[in-house]
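User: Please work through this fold.
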Amino acid sequence: MLRFDLFFSAKDGNYVRLARQMLCVASLLLAASTLHAATYYVAANGNDANSGLRPGAAWKTLDKVNGMTFAPGDKILFHAGDSWTGQLAPRGSGAEGQPIVIDQYGRGAKPVIHGPGTNDSSAVLIKDESYWEINDLEVTNTQPEGGTAVLRGIYIVGTSPKDLWHHIYVRNCYVHGVNSISFGKPGYSKMSGGILYEINIRDALVEGNRVSNVGVEGIRNSSPLTTSHFVIRNNVVENVYGDGIVLHGSSGGSVIEYNRVHRVCISDAANYAAVWTFASRHTLIQYNEISGTVAGGPNDGEVFDADIDTDGDVFQYNYSHDNARGFMLFMRSAKNIVVRYNISRNDAEGASRHGGHRLFFQDGHMGSVTNRIYNNTFYVSGIDTVFYEAKNVNFDNNILYSTGTVKQFSTTPLSAASSFENNIFYPASMTAQNGPAGTVLHNLNANPIWKAANAGSDEFSIGRNGFLKLAKSFTLKKSSPALHAGKVIEANGGLDFFGNPVSTTDAPNIGAYNGAGVR
């Protein structure tokens, strides 16, 4: 962007005229830059000898595209319904306000890029570039069964962690059939799978994509802590060998929201989780639905995970249900983590590994007293334990409801630094072994009396203001003992799971619902 710093007196007409002339020149230069941008067309029936500048003169091959260096504002459009085999690896960088855009033209199915299926390959590669937007592609990268290749669908990479790249978006793409090698094989890498960023970046967006039948990972980055404003929004991630969504490295401004993650953590060979953060600062993980996770290794498999070096991440307004493993893992260095206004239904239902059916796992160490779990609703059948290897726990205003037997509240005695205030534990027998410790006040052992007799049976949907809705379940009847029975929590986010206001002065309800009692 052009910048002119002008210093003049309004009394001097010459300076005023000069300022106007310079501003006029700046406008002309910007206009010329915009006019320079070109739109290039690529079609299966094209010809690389063509100009590429109109649909009737389209290029034909990926090699032609890869041989060009594109300029700010350029567009590369692939013909709908056509397909190519090989790697799409265009060159050049856009500029602020003038990204280079990859998209489709014409009516029909998304254009398809079938990756080469060779080791360390990706179907789409953006390397050491800034200001790109990749839209509306279908992407595969498949090797024969039993192959030994590390494969990626869409791969954004920066070769120098000291350089900071900007504005690389992946939107409305369908990435599937990426069968990278599995754990235990030579060359195995977690930086393989669907949509991957291995780059130091400010302003990344992964939005509206479907990632299906991939391994090892669904959507993830692996970046230094100087990365920021990384947004993963409104994606469907399903049938993934390993982790579903991972944000690894963010100094702030990052969000994981409105994603549906289903049947991930299929493998039990290594540790995986559905949605998790690593080396993250104040990331929001919100409005996601996670269901049907399968396994996840000897220690993990949880729906959520505040992993190593996380500080201030907030997990809120999420709906998890019918997952084989537990709801949440806290690694030993996780601190200032907030878990609030989530609903967990029938999680920890199929755990058969070490630790059994457990709702929370705290990595076998003390855990930080700064982590807070409040105003959530947990609905389980029979599980082995609520807290596995936990010591310090702040657990307030939560409903923990079981339709079966909870064998023990905690695998080890909880510390005197813990806090358990204004919760509902039902039935009371769940707290009999290694029960709440530390500050234990105003807890109830009463049925919360939800609107639906079979609470938790309804399907997920988006309600007003974008908040998650369960049509009848988990709203409280007028006779519920949970109404106005919670403790006031400062900086409580202001809204419950359903978008109802939460006061900072009046007692809230216990659980994730803070609305009025219903009939």
Q: What stands out?
A: The radius of gyration is 26 Å. The longest helix spans residues 13-36.
